[in-house]
Structures are given as structure tokens and as C-alpha cells.
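Look over both lines before class:
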Amino acid sequence: MVVIASMMLASCGARTTTDSNPTAALAAGISEQCSKLEKPELGAGTVCFDSGFRIASDDFSFTNWGRSNNADSNVTVQTLIDLFGHSSICMPGATTACVMRPSTIQQLEQWNNALSGGRCEGIATLASRLFLKYDRPDDFAPGVQKAADLKVTDGTLAQDIVRWWATQFLTEVRDRAAESRTKTPLQLVSDLMQGLAHNSGYTLGMYFGATGHSVMPFAVTKRDSMFVIHVYDNNNPGVRREVLVDSTNNTWHFPHALNALDGTPIDWEGTTGTLELVPISARMGPFTCPFCNGDASTQRVLTIASRDPQSPGYVFIRARSGKTMSVTPESVSNSIPGATYELGKGASSALATITLPESAGDFDVFVKRASAEIPAGDVVLNLRRQGSADIQVVGNLAETVIGGKKSGTALFAVRSDATTIHAPSGSNARVSVAAGTNLSRTNLAPRTSLVVHAIAAHSIEVSLKGSADNEMATAHFAAGSSTHVTDSEWAMDGEQQFTATSEQMSAVSVTASPVVSFTPRKAPRTTTTTFVPSSIVISRPD
């Protein structure tokens, strides 16, 4: 990535606002709510609002991290039950045991790959909840009074962080995030000040190219032409960080957001659509399960995550109409009408969700890597569409390079009545097909293809094709409801016929009544700020 140059500073002291200059009018309105007080601990400038959160006391002392070697610290079936309930995640039965639905198994694979990009959203959310006293440090470690004294290994801290991380992908949170991205950076500064004055907590999301990050905002000051949002950045614990919002051109700037592979510092900047402000109240639940059975949406939903942030895969989609969506490390471009691209917060391996309406017609999906020097990393790709099975493909799938001369073969060829999965020329592709209560898996050899036809008569038809695109075998598998989950492994026998080894899915132990509170556990404390804007009325949290 290219280092972003520092932005020009301009004075915001002159009162020359008119209705023809809404940016100047909004900046002046925010300035009127700021004091003339200074707080050295917040750097140069005057205080607009300060919640009282302080680095090295209220932040966590550990750094943001990705996927853990300890499976219980990652996304587990208990995580999904806590979010969506036992009946959505498990087959009917005792609430102390769970026979996972096929869609649950696929979701665990997907989210745990996405977790490799970091759990910044979860850390920012839990830090805010602790400061608001919705949770308490001694919930995780007896006797601990400050968040900064907690360790990752304390109690259920790691599990709580990953649960809050997952909420960014849920409809109720995504809708609030998308709504906030329609606002300008200055409008978000105004919203943040109002919310902090009402003792609300927030996460602040930033997007730059194909990377996102989440921090916790806690104060706003004014410095020359800039409004400074002071944040706890979980990539840099113990350090107060600043997101600068320019009152003149209504843009934002985050100096030294991260380092390039060679250690070069990278600044982020953006304008409307790349900055979001999500209140903690959006995560109070109950939540709608985005992947559970019974989704009647006519959208085709494609998700991608990479296991290794250093060698991620990037999606390129080409519709039959010629319209395209192209994702690179630096940008996302889209000309497909009605299609959307949403990026989760994390490194380049973070989960991306792409929706394409039926009106987009047939389309092909390619997975590419940033350069020839970067290996084709382990990628997981999911496709959900009405009237068909849920398909998941895992493997070293990015066989071509962004901007390269060869486009390669599409990983997915999505047609009205079928979806074809093409294994890359140089590696296997692990495929799972979830339909009803049946989960079927197979390992596609290089250059072979699997065709999954639309569900009909409560069954799915699958066809295996060789490297010459010749059909080798066809079989039907149940896709209806059952009282149990069947886990099948597909293979080919010596006569090029499908064979399937099946067994019933076993139950795993889960917590019957998880002690998870998505609402405040304690009454929020009163803010410790020394200045309250005169135009803001203090009231109870939303």
C-alpha cells in the first residue's frame, strides 16, 4: 500500500458559514459545543467532550490477536448458541448437548478462518462495556478492579471477546453500521459527542482498501482545523491514539494505522462511507441468525475469509452481462447493479460478504492473490442461494494474480439451475455441501469439477467432471428434514462411480443456560467529564 500524505490544515475560527456551505456550518455547530478548557493528557487542543476513559487503566494491556491455538478461545458451537439459541444451531434435543446442524458446521469453519484477521471488534466492544459497567473486570478474575489488570487467560475473557467480535456480522449490527456509513465524518463526530454525553458507548470502524479496523472512541477535542477523536486502539495498548477529522474538507485521517510487510508505516484516510460509528446498544440482542436454515432471501450471498493474513485471497466476480466486482488490497470497484460488498474488521483475511441479486443473472467467481511472490493461501469460500444447497470450498484457491495476464478458471460458476466448483490446477479443493440435515464432503483433485444442481424432490444431484470437462459420475443425495444429521464422505471407486460413507453426527456437550448478558448487568456510572456542552441534555443510556 502507498503511504497517505498528511492533509492540509486550515483555520476553523472564522464565522463565515452560510447555508451554501453545509460542511462549514456543521463544523461551526460542533465548535460551539466545545469548551476553552485544555487537558494535557489529551494532547494539544480544547475539550469538546471527555467520557473519562483513560488509557493504561481502562484499556486492556494485551494486544489484539487472531486465531488461537486453544480451540476454546476461538469460535465454538457454544459461541453460536449464546448468540442465536440452541434450536437455531442444534437439532432438537436436550439443551445440554448439541447435534450441530450442517449450516452450523460450515459457519464454524468460516468464522474461525475470518478470526485469523484479528478480533479488534470484540476487544473494542468489551472495553466499552466494561467502562460503562455493563460488565465488570471481576466477572473474569476475582478481585480484579481494572480492565488493564486482566489477562487473556482470565476466566471466559477470550470467549467473551470472540462472541462480541462475531456480532459485527449480524443483521442488527450490520444495519446500524451501514446506516452510519451514509453520514459524513463531521456528522459522526457530532453523533459521538451527543452519545458520549448520554453515557452511551461506541465502536469506531475504519476501512482502507480491503482492510478494516475497529477501535473504541472516548473523547473529542478541537485542535486548529481538526476535531480529534481520541481512541483506544487494541493494536497498540497503553497508547492514546487519534483519529483526525478535518473540518474544512470533511475527511478523516488515522496516522500510522499499521505497518506494511517491510515495516513502513501506513496512514489511513477516507471520507463518507469509510468511517462508521456503532452504539453498544445495537448489540443487545436478540439476534437474527444470518446462516440458519429457512432463509427465504432471493439474494445470492458469497462470503470469503483467509486463514493467513499474509497471503489472503481477493474476489473477482464477472457477471454474464459483462459487469464486474473487483477487490484488490487497495480498493473495491463494482459495476454490478444491486450488488454489495461488506468487509469485516480485521487484516486482509477478514470476512467479506458479497450479495448479488437474482437480477444480476449468472456469474463467475475467481479468487486471486496480490502478487506472484505471495503463495496461494488457505481460503474458505461460502455460497448460499435460495433453492440450492449451501456450498463451502476450502483450500489454496487463489491460483492467479491480480492484474495478471491469465484469468484462470472460475472457482464458482453460478448458473440459474446449478453451481459448478472447479478445483484449481495446482491444488485440491475441499468441498462441503449442506442440504437439509445432510452434510456431504469430498476432496476435489486438481482440474476436476463438481456440479451441484438445484434441490428438487427433496434431493440434490451432484455430478463429477474430469479435467477434460467430461462427466464421470452422477449421484443423488437426500436434502430433506430428518431427526438426525447425516455426515457423508463422497469418493470415487475404481469404476468411476460415486461412493458415500455416512454416519450420524454425534452430540457435543454445551451449556444449557449460558450466563451471557447482552444487556447491561449493572447501572451505568455517571460520566467524569469536567465539561458538558450546553446544548446537550444528559439522560439515561439508549
Summary: Confidence is low (pLDDT under 50) at residues 1-18, 522-542. Residues 300-505 form one domain. The chain has two domains: 24-65+118-288, 300-505. The first strand starts at residue 46 and ends at 50.
